[in-house]
Amino acid sequence: MQERSLREFVDRQEINDLLVDYCCALDRMDLPRLSALFTDDCVVDYGPNDFLQSRGSEALEKSLERMWRWSRTSHHLSNVQIDFCDENEALCRSYVYAWHEREDGTNATILGQYHDRVVRGDRGWRIAERRMLMNGCDAGFKVNINRFEKITPPADWIAPNIDGTT
Amino acid sequence: MQERSLREFVDRQEINDLLVDYCCALDRMDLPRLSALFTDDCVVDYGPNDFLQSRGSEALEKSLERMWRWSRTSHHLSNVQIDFCDENEALCRSYVYAWHEREDGTNATILGQYHDRVVRGDRGWRIAERRMLMNGCDAGFKVNINRFEKITPPADWIAPNIDGTT
Amino acid sequence: MQERSLREFVDRQEINDLLVDYCCALDRMDLPRLSALFTDDCVVDYGPNDFLQSRGSEALEKSLERMWRWSRTSHHLSNVQIDFCDENEALCRSYVYAWHEREDGTNATILGQYHDRVVRGDRGWRIAERRMLMNGCDAGFKVNINRFEKITPPADWIAPNIDGTT
Lengths: 166, 166, 166
Hints:
Three copies of one chain form a homotrimer. Chain A has three helices and six strands. The first copy, chain A, is an alpha+beta fold. Chain A starts with a helix and ends in a 29-residue tail after the last strand. Chains A and B meet through α1, β3 and β4 of A and α1, β3 and β4 of B.
């Protein structure tokens, strides 16, 4: 059990590094480094539009060239949760605060989640499936990211009178 | 010492997961899952007003129904610090970036801290006490969260002339 | 190898705590605690202007008195990456979301990175070198922090027509 735990901690560290690397490579726009974080046959789904879906790391790298349209970005990862399926596969959920700036100085921020399946291959842990969901965004963000759905209130719920919102 | 460390790492991981679970369950508005993260007799203090204080996980679950008034939220945890009192109890401090959106599209963001006492019970680690503090917020946030107090400058401090703020 | 891993995990935890302590001590404006996180002969570079560079923890503590000009701040750390040079030295990169508020209620937010060299001394891990870089900021932030440079697009890249940005 001690052996198992230590192994699991190494894996958790490597998977966390993988998810952080994605953010850093994207902000740097190091697209070869970024696509190398995914399996060759990865499936990536940022949203329902065709241009937000990619199959294979090569197609993903090509698709993410769209991020050049931002002059600057900053992707901050948090809330990482990792559940191991077996020793070579895990399901991960994480949150991202993603800020984007256009050449004209306007910006767009998204509060999102990454729901991933990661697998261990010859080159270490890689993202095999990524689905992005959006908790929310500011008025500047217009891309149609998959919407995160929360549980709806019970039918008899009455909004309280707090901060003038009811 | 090696045995102790490994045990402590497992505990740190479980406590970190507990704090992250709170954020995720709140954004999902999964209130039963959320209240199960607290001890039955927990004491929770978000601010001085009565409606921001709860005793017991049942009362907390009822109280947090107020969060239905937001159409969407996103709670991003960071800066987690854990100090063990003994092997079954720890004091934790963490930061949260919490974004909230109303049905009318207006939003409110708070930059806060959670100061927690967590204990190990039959069901694993749970939050026994939580006090929330606010470092700051934007103009849209109106709830009276406990204010985090910083150390005040010495009496003879003179503000420097930087970025036109003095 | 097991022995090495456990040691490395303890070090990773201590280094992570060090980086988080910086954020917490800065928001609390506990300057003696903050300067104690650095080596006596540290080199700190927030930007090209003289007042943004410090040599030695004593000079740094004095220099950071400028942060009193903010009424409130909130520094949220994420994306921590640690690469060990040897068992007593490591290179770290991390991201920070840093919110600042002036006495007049206006605020300024920066999305930045810390690139650090940390060393193990008699008092544990300390920051020996810190260079701050800026991914971006809002219109309220005016300080000349070192700019993070991303890779530029290939000469033949054509901006796609997404969200009205082209």
